[in-house]
Fold this protein.
Amino acid sequence: MTEPRPVSGRAADAISPGRTAVALVAGWLVPGAGHAVVFRVRRGILFFVLIMGSFGLGLAQDGRLALYSQREGFLTGLQLVANIGVGPADAVARMNVYGEAAYALPDPYSSGYKPLVEKFRARQRSAVSAYGTAYLWSAGLMNLLLLMDIWDIAKRRKD
Amino acid sequence: MRSHFANLILYSAIIATFFSVLTRRDRREQLRFGGLVFLGMTGGVLLLAYLMLPFPR
């Protein structure tokens, strides 16, 4: 297997493994922050605006904050990945919407099941919920793509 | 925001900007690629909507 060809310009600057790790964590915690850590500040600011804008539009339009269900484990698992991709902002949103950072449906016989499902369904009844969901999940998936971009920048595959 | 069209424009703009900045480095290339993605998304949706016009629910 051939080594990736280093690109010219700023990408030739060495980015240590430690900085790469910090960038990846920062990038997940705050969208765009990872790019700032690897010296792409302007790009990071733009990504922050795009991702948090999409996330905000999703919340405002009753987008689905997925809950893992064992009955539909694969699909709800993928939905969760898309939600969680945006970082801790997702947990904050869940606390506001559900009253707790809920990620899975509780046992149907437990006392917490009905109130949580009611809140979940109430958002889905909204006429614009499908749009909100598209914005929310896109925000999470875009942020996951950014983490891969940071990795490529650190490995000097990209500028 | 309850307008389908406004959502289409806004969503397409966000996605087009994101991918143009992510995948292109040259400013002119970014504009070209972003414009193509934006037009592809909005145009594709409008074309699909037009084709579905004779088949209401």
About this structure: Chain B has a mean pLDDT of 94. The first helix of chain B runs from residue 4 to 23. Chain B touches chain A through twelve residues (CB under 8 Å).
